[in-house]
Design goal:
Enzyme class: hydrolase
GO molecular function, one term: isomerase activity
CATH superfamily: 2-enoyl-CoA Hydratase, Chain A, domain 1
GO biological process, one term: L-valine catabolic process
Order of helices and strands: EEHEEHHEEHEEHHHEHHHHHHHHHH
Structural class: alpha/beta
Helix content: 40-55%
CATH class: Alpha Beta
Largest sheet: 6 strands, mixed
Number of domains: 1
Pfam families: ECH_2
EC number: 3.1.2.4
Shape: globular
Distance between the termini: 39 Å
Number of strands: 9
């Protein structure tokens, strides 16, 4: 039986090793399940403490995706069987996922993520945790949670709110698919290579003078990637997000009803913006409110506080939000006609959002209480 995630170590000329994590469910676009999350948590924790491991690389099997998100079917079935209750399946999955993402952010040693192909939802959580985030000409990066009654999680409360202008809000509401240039512009990618440069890049990594000095190793990897990225920069297409930043800021200006009105009445010839508009307007009205609540967090919260906030909201979405209906329509019945709890953004009751953003745990009993 093939393993859902494969761990290898590569020797280098320096005598130090590189730990390689390969997400290995190609037919499911390397979507994350609980077993994978637990296995990665254990292996990465071990590598973090192993002086012979200089660097970690994360990659996805096949050429279609690094990781298309989380495999949420088990959460869906548990939630449907236990309506209005927090389930162990939801609690365990999101807790484990956020612990893994947080570990990557705090890893210390360089973590390179090969963000080729589809990188969405939970895949973006892994990528955002990497210190060196490579995008390619095939990268398609998005947070599509508005379409399933969730909101951008996996640390997005931290990174979306630190993007230029109102870009983070726009990405959350519209599930806009970023290419490489967009990802570099908003900081989700920090290096660019062509997809066919993977092997030469790995070969070059094996020849670096790795040591047990993490800071020095970060510089070595950055210098290698910068040198390989440089020849491509002139030929990269212009980022639409960058080019239309001022229009995006105007479109996203004001309160939730202003933005809904602006998107509803938008008349544009830009295909990418039409798709974004259509996705946003078809999305869950509850998701809209959660995405605005997330944007209102601003940049005051630490990464740890963002993950704690998200865990409460995510498990609440599964028990009393639009999540089950969103998953039913997209993955279970596949009719793509979700019947959201509220007919439109204006109809959403304030007390419903207050319930969803209220943590189900006391601070000292929070599953992520150890985050600081």
């Amino acid at each position: 039986m093939t393993q859902d995630v494969i761990f290898q170590t590569l020797g280098t000329l320096s005598g130090q090793s590189i730990g390689v994590v390969t997400l290995n469910i190609e037919k499911a676009l390397n979507a994350l399940n609980l077993d994978m999350l637990q296995a990665m948590q254990a292996q990465l924790t071990q590598w973090q403490q192993d002086d012979s491991i200089a660097c970690v690389v994360m990659d996805g099997a096949g050429d279609k995706a690094f990781c298309a998100g989380g495999d949420v079917r088990a959460i869906y079935h548990a939630a449907v069987a236990n309506p209005n209750n927090l389930t162990a399946e939801a609690g365990d999955f999101f807790t484990q996922e956020y612990q893994l993402d947080y570990l990557l952010h705090q890893f210390g040693k360089p973590v390179l993520v090969w963000g080729d192909g589809i990188v969405m939802g939970g895949g973006l959580g892994l990528m955002a945790g990497g210190s060196h985030r490579v995008v390619t000409e095939r990268s398609r990066i998005a947070m599509p949670e508005v379409t399933i009654g969730l909101y951008p999680d996996v640390g997005a409360s931290y990174f979306l709110n630190r993007m230029p202008g109102k870009t983070g809000l726009f990405l959350g509401l519209t599930a806009y698919n970023m290419g490489a240039a967009d990802a570099l512009y908003v900081g989700l990618g920090n290096h660019y290579l062509n997809s066919d440069e993977k092997e030469p890049f790995f070969d070059a990594m094996a020849e670096l003078a790795w040591s047990q000095d993490s800071e020095q190793n970060h510089h070595l990897l950055s210098d290698l990637l910068t040198g390989m990225t440089q020849p491509h920069l002139a030929s990269l297409p212009t980022s639409a997000l960058q080019q239309f930043q001022s229009q995006i800021d105007l479109l996203m200006a004001g309160d939730i009803l202003d933005v809904h009105h602006q998107l509803s009445t938008l008349n544009t010839e830009l295909d990418w913006l039409k798709r974004a508009q259509k996705t946003a307007l078809a999305g869950s009205p509850i998701s809209w409110h959660l995405i605005f609540a997330q944007a209102a967090l601003g940049t005051d919260l630490s990464l740890a506080e963002c993950f704690k906030w998200e865990l409460g909201v995510s498990v609440n979405c599964c028990s009393m939000g639009d999540f089950c209906e969103g998953i039913r329509a997209l993955l279970i019945d596949k009719d793509r006609s979700p019947q959201w709890l509220f007919t439109d953004v204006e109809a959403v009751e304030a007390n419903k959002i207050a319930q969803l953003v209220a943590s189900p745990w006391a601070a000292d009993k929070h599953p992520l209480a150890s985050f600081n």
